[in-house]
Specification:
Length: about 1300
């Protein structure tokens, strides 16, 4: 015991000697000092059970001092300081148990071998163990101790040795030196708690480790300032740092902005010190906390070394940083169950760094950022689950092979995966996660690899780079919802794909600005983009008018980026919505690539655009169940086996444009489209275009190139606008419109062999006021068919059906069972006809030879008499127009410009027609086997104009006309023209230059006038039966006028009524030649004209008047039987005819009332039979024969006549008979030779009778009997013989008989 702490309780210096100082010595206060001045051995120095010592010093620090087998103990005492200093030592033992020492220092200045330094239940302030030399086979142990100050292990060269701290608490721990092979420093169940703001770490290691171990386990390490654990030395090959089951914290909250990182933290390996190759950092089950987000919870740089950092570590706040400065392998880095982290950084991005078999895990934590950056990597595994990370970034700058990157059940802000180098056999997956910001995949060269996002929500998704062979980027069951107005897409792909897959499936992608999905990279051969079962929306409503399209949209492939040949875009069952009609719901351009876009996609609003810039094949593009679309555009340079479908949607416009195509299919069903256009600009083969239950405005199909084996069908559709078919060269192909309504129909182009256009059960109702037709065909047809059937076609302006193209050989236009109307009522007076109409073939376009126009059972109406109900011109073609068509109002015109055959043109049950014209009158036109009919119709004007005609059958039945004109400008052969049961208000005019073997029949028909001119030749006949010709207009025109010559032909008027109020009832002004017969039978013929005409050549007026200059020539016959003939004045001719060799058969059944009856023979004739009977008030009867008549019979019976003159030049076998006639002056004069003549007058009355035979003759019989004459009976015989003349039972005023009677 010493009285003061400044005194020495023991002071000893040994110069080679040794001390044995056992633990039974007890000191109170003062200094205890033992010094060795030279080498020694076997010293035993123990201080025990001492109190209040100022210091204990054991000093063997001399330069050459070597201590061997020393034992130094400090037990159960209190001392301000303990200092043990050795120069060099072997087998050194230092022990402290139960000591309370303010500052305990152990220092070996040189080498130490086999040392044991133990602190057990040690307490106090500071503890320092310093070994400045080489230390081997040594252990330094601190156990169950409590130290308020710093524990320092400074082990300069520590080999095969251990340093252990166990169940100890301290204020700081500092380690320095170099741990060499087999050495270890182990801290276990220890508390290092630095409560002093000294900017010193609680745990500081400045010792290098080389094939050595640093282990901190089950300890608590905390600091109030800067660092909890601070490492400032390299770790070399074979070394391991192991941190296990620790609680490591720093409560420092100030942000440090200067200096090199790390500036503060929980576990901080200073940035200039590394783990070298072969070195390992192991971390497990540590709880790590920093007081500020600016601190480093973990900071580490590895220069070839590796980390094993399992998922049991827990971090609170701050940064976690692991950096690799050179290539490394087998790193295992997992951060788990951590909260409030500022960042996690795993960095191996150095230029030449390649990591192999790394495993990085981020689990169940909160962190502002996570950054995993590699340069090159092999067999890399990055796994994250349950992490909430503000910004999670994974990147690689070099080659990556066989990497696995997984994100599962994560949350946070953004996620970025960037692989800047070649990446192969790699998997990137994000599942069951939620990100408020952007998920980015930047994969520069991604080959044989896959990136998957599944069941994940995010604010944006971005991908770029190059996804190459056998790789895939897949998004499934995810939500990408961008709520920020940033002009950024919700989904952006700037990555090229080459033999790779991009698939987005069962996801919801939405944006409030510009784009939902935006693609800005090429897609190359073998690549597939697949969008399936997604909901894709953008609510952006502002119209963008600048920039290259697309400017905004739901699914937008930027216009400069394409799908190349062999690339495929697949879309199925997506719900797509844009906030404005100005946005693109879908936009893509393919440069040889193809699209598979099935009918399960649904769009709301906006544009859909698909563009093919190069030839492609096998595209399938279907839009279905979409609403409010602005437009759908499909443009293709060239395609093969394309299928396009538009189903169950409404859209303002659809435009499909294809250059060349093979096996093209275009379908539309249930679509409501304002304007639908399909255009092929090049060759199309084996196309199928179908519109089924299609609705909307306009529909246009244009095929500008050669089209073959193609079908276009429109069925069960409703269109308010124009349907346009423009088919430039359409061969072996079909176009069908069925059960469809539309505003207009337009067809143009050229239908070639085997093609047809068919319209059936369709309504074409044009309600707009324009000069366009409801139906317009400007397409030529060659060996093809146009058929319109069971349809209604109407217009309020100009044309219902308008045709403006030629129809060539083999082609047929067929109109059947249609209702065709135009209600236009304005008269158009300018332009070439037709100017308006129901069915109008424009005058400059024709049906050529071999072409056929067929019309059947059409109901045709025009709103004005000035319009054309039907107009067509045939240039060799023919018309088949059966009697089932019904016309109302307007003109019907059929014109033949060249020869044609087998035309069949019937108008039936038509009303209020303005005109009917059938015209084949061209100079060289020959009509063969035509059938023309007008039945049950009424028409103002009917014009039949024909040139050369063979086998014509023209029938008019039960119809009404104002005028009916038949004009043949050339020979008619083997034809029939029949008019029956009809009413002609004005006239029938027939002109024929040569009518051969043909018939013209008028039966049961009424008219005002009939006019015939021309020549009726061999085998022909004009027959009138049971008809009425009644002219009630004072026109000085005959009711019946024949100006036609007849040769070996028949004119028969039978059972008819022919009457006129002016001049003539029947007027004949043409010669009648040999073999011809005029037969008038059973007619009522009258003229009520009462004015006497005194000028001109007779006959001047009459009932039956053959104009005096025209004759019946030899062989011609006039037959008249049972006609009732009346004239209005005695000055008219009831009958006038001149025969020039012809003969008359005029039986006694004709009845005349008033007027003259005159028959003149201008040359020799025979067998004439002329009997006038039962007639009254006749002015005269004249029978005049200028030649030699043979076998003539003239009879005058039961009539009243002022005069009867029978004048014969010469005669053989002449019979003149009269009975019951009352004649004022009856004269028979035979001026020439006569042979065998009988003149009989029996029961006559009247004025005078004169019979004169001027020449000598014989065999004459003249008998006058039972008659009464008030005047003279005069007989004058020039010289008769063998004759008998008798006057018997007759009264008379005078009788004279002159002449010569011979034997």
């Amino acid at each position: 015991s010493v009285g003061t702490m400044y005194s020495y309780s023991l002071y000893l210096r040994l110069n080679g000697g040794r001390i044995m100082h056992d633990g039974l010595n007890r000191y109170t206060s003062g200094h205890v000092v033992v010094s060795h001045l030279s080498s020694t051995a076997n010293n035993y120095f123990v201080v025990n059970q001492s109190a209040s010592l100022t210091s204990i010093v054991y000093d063997a620090s001399g330069t050459s001092v070597v201590s061997t087998n020393d034992v130094i103990g400090v037990y159960n005492l209190d001392s301000t300081t303990v200092s043990i200093t050795m120069s060099a030592a072997n087998d050194l033992t230092i022990a402290s148990r139960g000591a309370n020492v303010g500052a305990f220092t152990v220092s070996v200045l040189s080498n130490l071998a086999r040392g044991t330094i133990d602190f057990d239940r040690h307490s106090g302030g500071a503890l320092s163990v310093s070994m400045a030399g080489s230390t081997t086979a040594t252990s330094v142990t601190t156990i169950d101790s409590t130290l308020t100050g710093t524990v320092t292990f400074s082990l300069t060269t520590y080999t095969g040795s251990t340093a252990v701290v166990n169940r100890t608490s301290m204020g700081q721990f500092v380690s320095a030196g170099a741990y060499k092979t087999g050495a270890s420093m182990m801290i276990d169940q220890t508390v290092i708690k630095n409560t002093v703001s000294t900017f010193q770490a609680a745990f500081t290691n400045s010792a290098t480790f080389n094939s050595a171990l640093l282990e901190v386990r089950r300890s608590t390490i905390s600091n109030v300032e800067r660092y909890a654990m601070y490492f400032a030395a390299h770790t070399y090959s074979g070394a391991t740092h192991r941190l296990v089951d620790n609680i490591i914290s720093t409560s420092y909250t100030t942000k440090i902005t200067t200096g090199n990182p790390p500036v503060q933290g929980a576990i901080a390996y200073y940035y200039a010190y590394y783990f070298y190759s072969g070195a390992l950092l192991e971390m497990s089950n540590n709880d790590v906390s920093v007081g500020t987000m600016y601190s480093y919870a973990l900071y580490l740089r590895l220069n070839g070394g590796r980390i094993t950092h399992d998922g049991l570590n827990r971090y609170t706040s701050g940064h976690v940083v692991v950096s690799h400065l050179s290539s490394t392998a087998n790193n295992y880095f997992v951060v788990n169950q951590s909260t409030s982290l500022t960042s996690i950084v795993y960095d191996s991005s150095g230029t030449s760094v390649v990591t192999t078999n790394d495993v990085i895990g981020i689990y169940n934590l909160d962190s502002t950022t996570v950054s995993i950056a590699a340069n090159g990597a092999n067999d890399l595994t990055i796994d994250s689950s349950g992490a909430n990370v503000g910004a999670f970034a994974v990147s690689s700058g070099g080659t990556v092979a066989r990497a696995t990157v997984k994100f599962a059940n994560n949350a946070g802000g953004s996620l970025s995966v960037s692989m800047a180098g070649a990446t192969t056999f790699t998997s990137i997956s994000t599942t069951d996660s939620a990100y408020s910001g952007r998920v980015t995949h930047s994969l520069t060269t991604f080959t044989d690899s896959i990136a998957v996002v599944n069941r994940t929500t995010m604010g944006q998704f971005t991908s770029d780079g190059a996804i190459n062979a056998r790789s895939a980027l897949m998004i499934d069951q995810s939500v990408i919802k961008n709520t920020i107005s940033s002009n950024q897409a919700a989904f952006t792909n700037s990555a090229t794909f080459n033999s790779a897959l991009l698939e987005v499936r069962r996801s919801n992608i939405s944006n409030v600005e510009r784009y939902a999905m935006y693609f800005a990279a090429h897609v190359y051969s073998g690549a597939i983009h697949r969008l399936v079962d997604n909901i894709i929306t953008t609510t952006f409503t502002t119209k963008i008018t600048t920039g290259n399209p697309p400017v905004q949209g739901a699914i937008a492939y930027y216009y400069a980026n394409y799908f190349y040949t062999g690339a495929l875009l697949e879309m199925s069952n997506n719900d797509v919505s844009v906030g404005t009609m100005y946005s693109y719901s879908f936009y893509v351009r393919l440069n040889g690539g193809r699209i598979m876009h099935d009918n399960l996609n649904r769009y709301t609003s906006g544009y859909i655009v698909v563009v093919h810039l190069a030839t492609t094949t096998g595209n399938h593009f279907v839009v279905n169940q979409s609403t409010s679309l602005t437009s759908i555009t499909y443009n293709a340079e060239g395609t093969s086996h394309d299928t396009l479908g538009i189903y169950n949607l409404d859209c303002t416009t659809i435009a499909i444009t294809i250059a060349t195509a093979t096996n093209l299919t275009v379908n539309s069903s249930g679509a409501n489209v304002g304007d639908f256009s399909l255009t092929t600009t090049g060759t199309l083969s084996a196309g199928s275009v179908n519109f089924d239950r299609h609705y909307g405005g306009a529909l246009s199909v244009t095929m500008a190139g050669s089209t073959t084996a193609t079908a276009i069908t429109t069925i069960d559709s409703t269109l308010t606008g124009i349907v346009t078919l423009s088919l430039t060269t359409y061969t072996g192909s079909t176009t069908t419109v069925n059960r469809t309504s539309m505003g207009q129909f337009v067809s143009d182009g050229a239908y070639k062999t085997g093609a047809y256009l068919m319209i059936d059960q369709t309504l074409i109702n044009k309600t707009t006021t324009s000069t366009a037709a409801a139906f317009t065909n400007s397409a030529t047809f060659t060996a093809s068919l146009l058929e319109v059937r069971r349809s209604t076609i109407s217009n309020v302006e100009r044309y219902a059906m308008y045709f403006a193209a030629h129809v060539y050989s083999g082609a047929t236009h067929r109109l059947i069972d249609n209702i065709i109307t135009t209600t236009f009522t304005t008269k158009i007076t300018s332009g070439n006809p037709p100017v308006q109409g129901a069915i109008a073939y424009y005058y400059a376009f024709y049906f050529y030879s071999g072409a056929v126009l067929e019309l059947s059972n059409n109901q045709v109406f025009v709103g004005t008499m000035y319009a054309y109900a039907f107009y067509v011109r045939l240039n060799g073609g023919r018309v088949v127009h059966d009697g089932l068509n019904h016309y109302t109002n307007g003109h019907i015109v059929v014109s033949h410009l060249s020869s044609s055959a087998n035309n069949y043109f019937i108008v039936n049950k038509s009303t209020a027609l303005t005109s009917f014209t059938y015209d084949t009158s061209g100079a060289s036109v020959v009509s063969t086997d035509d059938i023309v009919g007008i039945y049950n119709s009424d028409c103002v004007t009917t014009l039949i104009n024909m040139a050369a005609t063979t086998n014509l059958t023209m029938t008019t039945s039960a119809s009404q006309f104002d005028t009916y004109t038949v004009t043949f400008s050339s020979t008619v052969t083997n034809s029939r023209v029949i008019t029956m049961d009809s009413v002609i208000a004005a006239y029938i005019t027939v002109t024929v230059p040569s009518y051969l073997s043909s018939m013209f029949i008028v039966n049961r028909t009424s008219m005002s006038r009939f006019i015939l001119t021309g020549a009726v030749n061999a085998g022909s006949s004009f027959l009138f039966d049971q008809s009425v010709i009644k002219n009630t207009v004072s026109t000085f025109q005959a009711a019946f006028t024949n100006g036609a010559t007849f040769t070996a032909a028949l004119l028969e008027v039978r059972r008819c009524t022919v009457s006129n109020v002016e001049r003539y009832a029947m007027w004949f002004a043409a010669h009648t030649y040999s073999g011809a017969i005029h037969r008038l039978v059973d007619n009522i013929i009258s003229t009520s004209y009462t004015t006497q005409i005194t000028t001109g050549n007779p006959p001047v007026q009459g009932a039956i008047a053959y104009y005096y200059a025209y004759y019946f020539y030899t062989g011609a016959l006039l037959e008249i039987s049972n006609n009732e003939v009346t004239v209005g004045t005695i000055h008219s001719y009831s009958f006038y005819v001149r025969l020039n060799g012809g003969r008359i058969m005029h039986d006694g059944l004709n009845h005349y009332t008033s007027g003259h009856v005159a028959v003149s023979q201008l040359s020799a004739s025979k067998n004439n039979y002329f009997v006038v009977n039962n007639s009254t008030s006749l002015t005269s009867i004249v029978y005049y024969s200028d030649g030699v008549s043979t076998n003539d019979t003239v009879g005058i019976y039961n009539l009243d006549s002022g005069i009867v003159n029978i004048v014969v030049d010469a005669a053989n076998d002449l019979t003149i008979d009269s009975s019951g006639a009352n004649v004022g002056t009856f004269t028979v004069l035979i001026s020439g030779a006569i042979n065998t003549c009988a003149v009989g007058v029996c029961g006559n009355t009247g004025g005078s009778l004169s019979v004169t035979m001027s020449a000598a003759t014989s065999s004459i019989g003249v008998a006058v009997a039972d008659s009464a004459f008030t005047g003279m009976v005069a007989l004058s015989m020039g010289g008769i013989s063998s004759s008998s003349i008798s006057v018997n039972r007759t009264t008379m005023g005078q009788f004279t008989n002159t002449g010569v009677y011979k034997a």
